[in-house]
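Contributing new records

If you add data, match the layout below exactly. Sequence lines come first and carry their own label; structure lines follow with theirs. Keep one chain per record. Anything else will be rejected by the validation script.
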Amino acid sequence: MREHYDIIVVGGGPAGINAALAAGRRRKKVLLIERHGFLGGMSTIAGVYPWMTFHTGEGKQVIRGIADEIVERLKERKASPGHLRDTCGFVYTVTPYDPEVYKVLVVEMLREAGVDILVHSFVDDLRLRDSATIDTIQITSKSGRRRVSADFFIDTSGDADLAYLAGAPTEKGRPDDKRTQPMTTKFRMRGVDLKKVKAAILADPDNFYPKTPIKELPELPLTAVQGFYSQWKRARLPIKRDQVLFFAGPAEDEVLVNMTRVQGLDGTDVEDLSKAEYEGRKQVLLVADFLKEWIPGFEKASISSVGAQIGIRETRRIVGQYTLTQEDVTAGRRFADVICRSGYPIDIHSPSGNHVEVARVSGDGAFDIPYRSLVPQRIDNLLVAGRCLSASHEAIATSRLTPSAMGTGQAAGTAAALCLESGDRPADVDIWFLQEQLIEDRMVLS
C-alpha cells in the first residue's frame, strides 16, 4: 500500500468496483477498500441475484459501459448467459451470473487498471484537513490500524459511512417514521426440477404474477417465478410477505430464493444487525421446508448455500445537491446533468406490511439519474455512488438496484478523475465534458 493515493474508494460492491475501474483506467492511483474478504457487495455477500435490469420495460438497453463489459467478460467464461427475458414479467430482462467467477473476474479487471485492493478492512474514522476536505481515513484490520491519505474519496459503502463520518448531511428511511425497507437473507437450493415448476405455472397461470409472459413461457428458459399465491396463503408462515419469489440458475437445478423478510431493524445499528442475522437465518429454514412441502419441483431440493450476511436494501443516504424523487422516476424525467439512466420501476418492500409497492416508469420507460445526486453537501473532495446516493425513500427503491449502482459508480469514478485533472470541486465539474467522457466509455445518456 501507498501512504497517499489520488483516489480512495470505500466499499467494494458493484458501485465501488466500477468507480475504481473508471478512475484507474484514467491513470489515477486508486485504492479500493472492502470490509469483507472478497469483492461484489450485496451481489456476492448477500446473494443478490440476478442483476435487474439493464433494459426498459420495452427492451431498450439503457445501462452499458463497464457494467455491460463485465457481463460480456462473464459470458466469455461461460459464467453468464447474458441478458435474458424475465419470466415473471416484473421487468423485461434479468442477467444471471456466477458469483464465484464474478469475484475473481473483477479483481483481475481492477489489477489490469492498476487499482490497489484491500479487503478485510473497515474504515471507522477520518480526519478533515479543513471543514470541507477529507485528508486521511483510518483503516482497521487484522494488521491493526493505519491511516491513508488521498486527494479525493468516493463513498460506495452502501450505508454512506464515509459521508456520515465526514459530517455530510444524510437521512434514513421514510420521512414519517424513518423505517427502512426490510432486510432479506437470501439462499440457494439445488435439486430443483425447473421443468416441473414451469408446468405448474402453465397449468394455473392465475396463481402467478399478472405480467408473467404465459404465451411465450413454453419457449423461454425459466429465469424467475413470482406467485404460487394460493400455496403461500394456505401455508400461513409467520413472515410478512404475500408471494413466493425465486430465480433460476446459474446451475440447471438451482434457484436463488428471495422470500425472507426482517422488518423494523436498522442496518446501521450493530445490535439490530445481530438480531436480523438470527431472524433471517431462522426464516430461511422455514421457507425451505415450505418450498419442499408445497411447491411442485422442490420435493428433492435442499439448501446449498445461504448469504454470508443478510441483504440490506436501504439505510443511510446522502442529502446531495439534488434529491431524486418518486415523481422524477415515474415521469421518466430527463436532467441536463444526467450521468446514468435506469428502466427499473420503484419497488418498495413494505417496512411494516406484507406487500410490495410498485410504480412504473412512464415516457420512454427510463429515467435519468442526475450528477447532482452523487454530490454531497459540505464536503468538497467526496462523491458517492450506489445505494447511498441522494434520493427519496421511494426513489432509492429503484436507484439501489445493481445495474444502476454500476452505472453511477462508473460516473463517480470518471468525475473524480476529472476533478483531479481540472482542480474543480465536484459541484463545479464540467458536466458537458463529463458526459462526453461517459459516452465515449459506452454509457447511455439519451
